[in-house]
Amino acid sequence: MSAKTDLDNVKGIRKADAKGMYDLIYNFPRQLTEGAHLGFIADLKLPDFTPQNIILTGMGGSAIGGDLARSYLTYELKVPFTVCRNYLLPEYVNDKSLVFISSYSGETEETLSAFQDAKRRKARIIAITSGGTLLQECNRDGLPFILIPKGFPPRAALGYSFTPILVALSRLGVIQDKIEELEETSKFLEKKRAEYALDKKKSRNPAKNLAANLYGKLPIIYTSVDYFDAVGYRWKGQFGENSKILSYNNYFPEFNHNELVGWKVLDQIRDKLIVVILKDKEDHPRIKIRMQIVKNIIQKKKVKIIELESQGENLLSRVFSLIQLGDFASFYLAILNQVDPTPVEVIDYLKKELASKR
Given 34, 179, 209, 302, which is the most exposed site by the fewest CB atoms within 10 A? Predict the structure, then answer.
């Protein structure tokens, strides 16, 4: 297969992308400001409430917004923020807890179960959803919700699941207002996407080049733990759902204390591996040193390494610059893999089987 021919054939790519994932990725920047607006107009019904802890419960594309918010706010929040991907909430959740219930469809069974658990514990609740059972129950019980647009695969609605969290927390006085950063980030991404566009030839398109390098490989994505751990996890999710491949992510410095040893026995798999290190100018100085040492170790194992640096003026722009690149690369990798990036048949099958066993 010729990666160059495939990725420069705009008409062919449009045909392969039957459900329009490319347009969703291309138009993503506006979600940041539109999502903020939806957060501002929602009736949160939480006057004078300061949470002792914050939990977002959700799964898949509905949970990643919580991961990004938790990571982005690590050094600003004065209370713990955790993400729960399960049927039940942690035992410490009580009436002093703020629980975001994030389910794009409003029908995610794990999240609906955690929703009932939050109500039993009398936690303060804010739902983020486009409808379904979750919206119906919020309306019935008089619980606050932020209504986001229908019609997206959850992973392609990241802006709508992320920005309402920031807006809600700023409205509660838990964090500083982020609208300026969101607007700057949206404008930056709108400009940046031209580099990754369909009509930009592979020779001058970083996302197409990245996809070509990853084709036929198992990507291993490494990031710092500060701010960018959730970005690596987003990349893994997008390679799974869009590109239909397995990938792996971990972060500095933790994997230096265990996984790094696993780079010794590689003879059977070396040719299938490729490492992507996502870097930021504000990575901890010791993390930067670790990245260079680890790069040297892996290069001696004859495994290719790609280093990518975040771009943008503010932190949020830098975070989303790497998310945007990863999203476009996952799309182009789907094209190389000759798969439609949108459908997730195996997840649909799993849900059907689960429903039959109730």
Answer: 302
